Amino acid sequence: MAGMLKIISERAGVSQAAVSQILNRRPNDYSSEETKKRVFSIARELGYKQNFGHKLLRGEKTKTVAIILSMQRLILEEQIQRLVLLLLDKFEHGGYVTYLQTVAGSEKENLKMVRELIARGTDHFVWLGNPTGVSSIEEEILSKGRSVIGFNSTFHRNLKNDSLFAIDRTVRKFLADGRMNFRLLLGTPQQVDRIQAICNLFPELSYDEVVRRHVVYLNFNGEVDNIDELTATGYEKTCEIMNADPHVSALMYLSDYFMLGGIRYLHQHRCAIGKDIVLCGHNNIHAVRNHIYPLWTWEIDMETISSILFRECAGSGRMAQLIKPKFIEIKGE
Question: Is-contact 114 125, C-beta < 8 A?
Answer without folding.
Answer: yes
